[in-house]
Specification:
mainly alpha, 17 helices
Length: 398
């Protein structure tokens, strides 16, 4: 979910991230409005909102892509493990921990997540250390599971770059995909392998797809000039047809393979956007609302789930039975609320850490902001005194 560093930011990527985060918000609104998931018991026009899980796959491919753009331009070299670890921790944790606190407070004081008990001390420890997919504990926020997965992928990222540098991108992608496919094939019959499925191993392959796709950005003009957007569409259409034919129950039950099938089309789409096509899509991603959405997409993803639950369970459900009325009411209330809260949350816990990359820089920025505010107050105070003095002199002269 994290954005690429400012030096390597490519037009459109933040917009894609923002749209994916918004899709997850709509997905959770729908889940709380109709019964029977994964069966599609709602109207046909809302069926696509059952598949919010795929947005997480987009985040994972996009994460691998964003992180690999700079190394791909410098011979697939990371530029230092310590620097990489600092930048990733600095980007992920400052918004994550406040979002965790907010989620815990809501779960303890208002309503826990659907299907979950109230969080415990174990929840605080496990979620605080990003170990929620390793150890079980009541979840305070239904969206936080993927942050742990992404953090674990950061650990293997240097190894992936090393393999690319030594053996090539195709070998790296093939090796990762082979291991992941073997886990998926053996899991139903081998309990020890099945235990690995809780780590959503397919996301390792999606992450690797993003890394490989990033190499296109620094490739020659001939490679960059290929119709990547059309190739992305061709890769996506068979998967879409399969989902439409098989339906939501089958698709949800086979997310492992569906994620692997969709991954290549996402990687190809990112390559297309990074090379400037299709232009109409780039223009859309560059519109002010989409760019704004992308700027706080991580905060939106982190904070929306408990807010949607509060709106649905405490405000809408007492007055609306499951169905379209509940869904529309939840959308009308939850979407504006989550956007406003995420925007404010980003201003406090996300953007300052993006602008200032170290504690000294951040402390200096805070001191400067406080000093400027103090100077403005003094200036206003002195102006008021001067105006009062002038008024008294006028009154005495009159």
């Amino acid at each position: 979910m994290s954005s690429t560093d400012g030096r390597t930011r490519l037009a459109g990527l933040d917009g894609i991230r923002g749209l994916a985060a918004f899709f997850v918000v709509l997905h959770h609104c729908r889940l709380l409005s109709y019964t029977g998931f994964p069966a599609d018991t709602g109207p046909w026009w809302s069926g696509w909102l059952l598949y919010g899980h795929f947005a997480v796959g987009v985040f994972i491919v996009l994460s691998g892509f964003s992180l690999a753009v700079a190394p791909a331009r410098s011979g697939w070299r990371l530029g230092g493990l310590r620097r990489f670890a600092h930048r990733r921790l600095w980007r992920i944790l400052p918004p994550y921990w406040p979002a965790l606190v907010m989620s815990l407070v809501i779960a303890w004081t208002l309503v826990p997540q659907p299907g979950e008990a109230a969080p415990t001390a174990k929840s605080v420890l496990i979620y605080g250390l990003l170990l929620q997919d390793v150890f079980g504990a009541p979840s305070p926020n239904g969206a936080l599971w993927s942050i742990a997965v992404e953090a674990q992928l950061y650990l293997v990222f240097p190894l992936l770059l090393l393999i690319v540098r030594r053996a090539g991108a195709a070998v790296m992608l093939g090796a990762v995909t082979a291991v992941v496919a073997a886990i998926g094939a053996l899991a139903p019959s081998v309990p020890a392998v099945d235990a690995l499925m809780r780590f959503t191993p397919q996301f390792a392959a999606l992450f690797a797809i993003g890394v490989v796709a990033a190499g296109i950005v620094s490739a020659g003009e001939r490679t960059r000039g290929l119709p990547w957007h059309w190739l992305a569409l061709l890769a996506f259409l068979p998967v879409l047809a399969l989902i439409l034919v098989k339906g939501s129950v089958w698709t949800v039950g086979n997310f492992f393979w569906a994620d692997l099938a969709i991954g290549p089309s996402v990687g190809l789409l990112l390559a297309a956007v990074a090379t400037g096509r299709p232009r109409w899509f780039l223009r859309f991603l560059d519109t002010r609302p989409v760019r704004a959405l992308g700027s706080f997409s991580y905060s939106l993803y982190l904070t929306h789930a408990p807010l949607v639950v509060v709106v649905s369970v405490l405000v809408v459900q007492p007055f609306a039975a499951p169905g379209t009325g509940r869904f529309l009411a939840t959308l009308a209330l939850a979407v504006p609320l989550t956007l406003v809260v995420a925007r404010l949350f980003a201003a406090a816990f996300e953007w300052p850490f993006q602008r200032h990359r170290t504690w000294p820089a951040l402390r200096e920025a805070v001191r400067s902001a406080v000093s400027r505010r103090r100077d403005r107050r003094r200036s206003v105070h002195h102006t008021d005194l001067d105006e009062k003095g002038e008024g008294s002199a006028v009154g005495r002269s009159a």
